[in-house]
Amino acid sequence: MKFSGKVGLVAAGVVGGVCISLGLTALAQRGPTGPLPIEDIRAITDVFDAVKRNYVEPVDDKKLLNGAIQGMLQDLDPHSQYLDADAFKDLRDSTQGEFGGLGIEVGTEDGFIKVQTPIEDTPAFRAGIKSGDLIVRIDDKSTKGLNLQDAVKLMRGKPGTKLTLTVSRKDNPVPMVFTLTRDVIKIQSVRSRDIEQGFGYVRISQFQERTVESLVTKLNEIAAKQPNLKGLVLDLRNDPGGLLHGAIGVSAAFLPQDKLVVYTEGRTEENRRKFFASPEDYRGLRDDPLRKLNPIFKTVPVVVLVNAGTASASEIVAGALQDHGRAKIVGQATFGKGSVQTIIPLSPTTGVKLTTARYYTPKGRAIQAKGIEPDYVVNETAQGDVYADLFMREADMERHLTGRDEKQADAKSAEQRARELVERAERIEKLRAEGRRPIEFGSAEDFQLAQALNLLKGQPVVTAKPKESVASAATPGDKPKK
């Protein structure tokens, strides 16, 4: 995505469109649009008037107008949308990786808000809130049936303000009440962990303002601990994307300088661009963070882990490293979010997010609705997939933008998509009821990580081939086995 206007911003959109922040400058070049269709405009005003006069309850003008704008954009593709004041602010907060809140990652379960994990050194973590806790009330508001986005809005707020959470904890019969003081929460988008002597592991969960700087810090820590580093695993699974310059910077950490990372094609000149592994394309207005990176990471063997949740900016990184032969890709086909969204401010607090171009890998492969195919297709577990085949991809989304080589006639019907969504939801609930949870990335039970390490060691890799479960011994320099 990119901001258009005097405040420039470039980003590779997150699935669902929630990431944007200051980055590379891109000025809008608006050409003539032709005369407005008067009859169609009159139809809109007639409908507006009919609703105002006849709807069963009074309707606010602003609500009607916002709904009309949203409908206009949502009918284009899944990622174009109108950003009201709240959505505009959330978008900025998300990629800046900093906001006022409690410090918990949440989801939903049984109609309540569930704590996925408390972030270390935050109000929630210090108060003793734990993974698995169900938040049943936020101040005096019940969370039963509350939309997740609305719950997050209630918990976020100005640092220094107080909030009361009522929590239900398994094996604790009495609800627990926590009074917390909001603080500035900084999201850590890059994490590393010790896995095995001689090998490093780093995971990027989202591409934000400081992702490249954080990656440099983590990689240098790995190099310091592992003076005889033999290989690195870069984990991009479930990374929904984020800022474009973050993706370029991460790619540049492993590529020779000035290598092509990605290019875009759109209707206008400004949307036909090439982005290279050079400071001009990833550092923004700050000093080049890659100057501090240990040079070993330009040559050490790399394996990139991907899955269907790997989208947009993370697909750019995987595609660039794969095309240049810098890394092998292990896991499953990625999401296929290969479109560019431009953020056009309409006021200081609102804007329009509009799809303006498509992304292509250095070798000209289209990402949109196709994704990146791994060199080694590996299931989630040795017994097969648990959740992987339940992931929704770009090509499954209604009104998705077609790829360059995709025929619109092949698109699924709305009815078929609806059936698949219901089936997915039912299967996910069944898996949860059986106690089958997604594997923790980077853990000892992480089967895909184990295969990535086997690949780095030149040992057999267990692939998802139906007739051949174990591939022959291979090294990262060997011909890909698909």
Automatic annotation (TrEMBL):
PROSITE patterns, per the entry: PDZ
Signal sequence segment: none
InterPro entries: ClpP/crotonase-like_dom_sf, CtpA/B_N, PDZ, PDZ_sf, Peptidase_S41A, Tail-specific_protease
Domain PDZ: 88-156
A Pfam family the protein falls into: PDZ_2
Coiled-coil features, chain-numbered ranges: 404-431
Sorted UniProt keywords: Coiled coil, Hydrolase, Protease, Serine protease
PANTHER family: CARBOXY-TERMINAL PROCESSING PROTEASE CTPA, TAIL-SPECIFIC PROTEASE
Similarity field: Belongs to the peptidase S41A family.
Protein name: S41 family peptidase
Lineage: Bacteria, Pseudomonadati, Pseudomonadota, Betaproteobacteria, Burkholderiales
